[in-house]
Design a protein that fits this description.
It is a single chain. The chain has 119 residues and is mainly alpha-helical. It has a single domain, classed as Four Helix Bundle (Hemerythrin (Met), subunit A), CATH 1.20.120.160. 83% of the residues lie in helices and 0% in strands. The chain has helices at residues 9-47, 51-67, 71-85, 89-92, 95-118. The longest helix is centred in the first third of the chain and has 39 residues, at 9-47. It starts with 8 loop residues before the first helix and ends with a helix.
Length: 119
């Protein structure tokens, strides 16, 4: 198992300090509920070459990732968002598998953090 965290622990601590376990748990829950749908939309839009949709969904996922300190995911979404906005479909090719891989790592880490909060 990879022990590297894909979350900014300082951001997680800020959220805990701001609203306690309830706020952090709700924010993680919203990410886990909505982010997989966004990923599905990004992937489908990429396959159909709908770069406007890739742009919109990558922008939304970027914001969700930023809110929880998933900075690597945030910056990758930002790259994808900008490439889609600029119509650079060919430059998205190497980014998409990395997005899928990183998204699943972040999602799994957040799911575990939610379990830990509820323990």
């Amino acid at each position: 198992m990879n022990s590297q965290s894909h979350l900014d622990n300082a951001m997680i601590q800020q959220l805990l300090d701001l609203g306690g376990k309830d706020l952090l748990g709700k924010m993680i829950g919203l990410f886990l509920e909505h982010a997989p749908l966004r990923m599905d939309k990004i992937e489908a839009a990429y396959v159909s070459q709908d770069l406007d949709e890739v742009y919109r969904e990558a922008h939304a996922l970027k914001s969700s990732a930023a809110n929880l300190g998933a900075n690597e995911l945030r910056f990758l979404c930002q790259d994808i968002e900008l490439l889609a906005h600029d119509g650079k479909a060919s430059e998205l090719v190497p980014k998409m598998p990395e997005l899928v891989r990183l998204f699943h790592l972040v999602k799994d880490e957040l799911a575990q953090k939610k379990v830990d909060l509820e323990a």
